[in-house]
Write a structure and sequence with these properties.
The structure is a homodimer.
Chain A: H1 12-22, E1 26-28, E2 35-37, H2 39-58, E3 62-63, E4 69-71, H3 72-75, H4 79-85, E5 88-99, E6 106-108, E7 113-120, H5 125-135, E8 144-153, E9 167-177, H6 180-200, E10 207-210, E11 222-229, E12 235-245, H7 247-251, E13 255-257, E14 263-265, E15 267-274, H8 276-285, E16 302-306, H9 311-330, E17 335-337, H10 345-354, E18 359-363, H11 365-370, E19 372-377, E20 382-387, H12 391-416, E21 418-420, H13 424-432, E22 437-441, H14 446-456, E23 459-464, E24 472-473, E25 480-481, E26 484-488
Parallel strand pairs in A: 3-8, 16-17, 16-18, 21-22
Antiparallel strand pairs in A: 1-2, 4-7, 5-6, 5-7, 8-9, 9-15, 10-11, 10-23, 11-12, 12-15, 13-14, 18-19, 19-20, 22-26, 23-26, 24-25
Helix pairs in contact in A: 2-6, 9-12
Amino acid sequence: MAKDFSTREENYSQWYNDLVIRADLAENSAVRGCMVIKPYGFAIWEKMQAALDKMFKDTGHVNAYFPIFIPKSFFSREASHVEGFAKECAVVTHYRLKNAPDNKGVVVDEDAKLEEELIVRPTSETIIWDTYKNWIQSYRDLPLLINQWANVVRWEMRTRLFLRTAEFLWQEGHTAHATSEEALNEALTMLDVYATFAEKFMAIPVLKGTKTASERFAGAIETFAIEALMQDGKALQAGTSHFLGQNFAKAFDVKFLNRENQLDFVWATSWGVSTRLLGALIMSHSDDHGLVLPPKLAPTQVVIVPVFKTNEQLGQISEVARKIQSSLQQSGISVKYDDRDTQKPGWKFTEYEFKGVPVRLVLGPRDLEQGTIEVFRRDTLEKDILQVEDIDRKVIHLLDQIQENLYQKAIDFRENNSHMVDTWEEFLQKIEGPGGFLYAHWDGTAETEAKIKEETKATIRVIPLGQPLAEGKCIYSGNPSSQRVIFARAY
Amino acid sequence: MAKDFSTREENYSQWYNDLVIRADLAENSAVRGCMVIKPYGFAIWEKMQAALDKMFKDTGHVNAYFPIFIPKSFFSREASHVEGFAKECAVVTHYRLKNAPDNKGVVVDEDAKLEEELIVRPTSETIIWDTYKNWIQSYRDLPLLINQWANVVRWEMRTRLFLRTAEFLWQEGHTAHATSEEALNEALTMLDVYATFAEKFMAIPVLKGTKTASERFAGAIETFAIEALMQDGKALQAGTSHFLGQNFAKAFDVKFLNRENQLDFVWATSWGVSTRLLGALIMSHSDDHGLVLPPKLAPTQVVIVPVFKTNEQLGQISEVARKIQSSLQQSGISVKYDDRDTQKPGWKFTEYEFKGVPVRLVLGPRDLEQGTIEVFRRDTLEKDILQVEDIDRKVIHLLDQIQENLYQKAIDFRENNSHMVDTWEEFLQKIEGPGGFLYAHWDGTAETEAKIKEETKATIRVIPLGQPLAEGKCIYSGNPSSQRVIFARAY
């Protein structure tokens, strides 16, 4: 472990920041709040994109692209949307620069002022529903199931790499439906897609539920979310899916002729996940030795390192190593053979450990003699000497085991950090202490929710879906409650 | 053919515009100059992206992501770059809106003025080289071979869907090298990648060459380009690759310790292709019946249309159709089986013809009896009745034939429209007439180039690579010339 790298216990927040930089995932740019996603970080995002994009297409969605700019007036059309989104944003006011009078650099050309300012999209509901107006006449044009991969900008004051940045990358789905039921189903289907992705690919268990009114997307009737628990006991919202009702259709006058030949407003959903998922991925599995990546999202799943003194040895080792590499590659596993002689094996071990490569294979002269190979797994840091015979099959099996183990560890962690809490004292004790998901009764009022947040910084992460109702008393007000909700401090 | 659809002969420009709209490829948005890329158009772009991305990775490149905003002062660092790029661009001056005093909508919050304006990237050399400064210390950090898929904005006054839009999608490669030779090789390698992509995937033959100084990228030492010829005799620049020398390294102070332990400035290239390629694709192959797509880029490569009167017939046809569909899909062919009963077969034929689906299979009750199937190829509009046996193999072969035929047709067209021109009269006659590529002698001066452009709107598309030198006299000035260059009017 590098000496300039904090441990989680010393300082979790610093550990995260150090990790992102040291593992070459991302860095701050010259533009306040905007990040540079470095090749290694971007390679993980590409794997996420590929998996999600396939899931979107398998559920009938297609991709399209809408403008990055939104006319300022569009935001005012939907009353609550403007409150939520048209505030901290990048505003384009001019379309030309000119040479400075002193000939030193360029200045804004005041003659090139836009009649109406353009906003760099913080989210695209408005421009998309303005477009859908022309695409939808009758129920035959529905449903529209469209997704967009794009960059968006929200002018955040305090930023952290991946978790909160002024510009970030995301996908936003925007669908249009003939009925309320169909739209609601769509929102829930996409919530499930996100949950499946988090669990199967990211190895992160998530809670599914609805947001309270105060945490709802600006313009939504209902916001569904998946929530994950980080190693420091704080929650992270990993994806949201919104049932928008007819709000945007009304704001942009999108009507259709239904099967009964009546004009009606179209029903809508929107849903998105972003590069924030990289933050969740890092914080869920990584340790004091660096990044830990689930095999399904690791850009390099296996690295082979030769240990040699002479070129002759290297030649013999390389022959075996390349055979293993090519047979793993044929099974779709990404394998790097690092035979550089500019770095020592020990340096390489630390490096790949830090970068979270799930499996490391080491081959030395003695291995060749004895027909063995050293296998190291990043998740448990365990080393083993195996017979080299059938090593490809063994490695593939091990990758599955690692994927499963990371998920199970995360499940166990969440279980150990989920608590039924029935008194305010207990609530305070947990929230000020280890954190975690607190299942507690709440009286259903925005006032109580706001006071709890004010006093403890804890928010209601979700009202869980599919949980049996159970009467109880609000931990804060003592008033009756019909269901426990999930509190936590959150990113 | 639809009656609201112009033919190429009537009005080529209108034909193009109609085609883009009618084939559901793209449309203008509510934001001046910005387009919406519709799902069908975007699906073609996704196929292009996938093919190019693979070629980039196969040549050792990785993807990353850099900020959309560039501080205004960055443009002034490289003297010629500022002239070329810091003029017509979107300028962000504020970062907040607030409620209007009259409570009607939102207005710019004048208290939230940026200290330094931010430019929405028109290209990313400046922000990337500012970042590379921290990534490069020694020759061991080189080469850096990085590509980015991104949106960019150039405030164009006259826009046309795909061909010239204020916002467009593209990829931009930015590489850093230890030597001039290596950088120059990289620029040429990527030119070859673009040429291969154009010819093998888009079925468009291209000329490779260097641009004259006046057509060079702002900040480049040498700009290489591929040029294609459209059906109206105008040229279209389909991709550029720039050798940037040490210009950006000097502007952003990017030095490295070379193998001789000396500090030196880093050598650079950049290269890009954009959604403009969709314009080239459409204009190269399409006809008065609509879009024609090369099979390798067609979102749907084969459509199967059943012709039936009864549900029983449909059931029998569907059984055969789905077998063909699944066997083609197993070979990686995208096949749509359109069994909708809301549209008649004739309507479907026209629709898929218009959308450029390369192969249409039609199955009726008589085909089932006789073991036949109707096969229609979009490129030649030829229909054939084949035995249904082995139809998957036949269709795969046909798709290859169509890909090859489109390329050959485009080659023939270019040959018929390329002319050696030796006098000014001939030059005028050709350029005012059918257009095409004119191979002519030029005295090498910017003055002559400018005058020819002024008088004829023709520009030097490229100084061809690998063409033997041959002495001659400039068609305009009569002064000596050592090589023919290629003139054309261009998009």
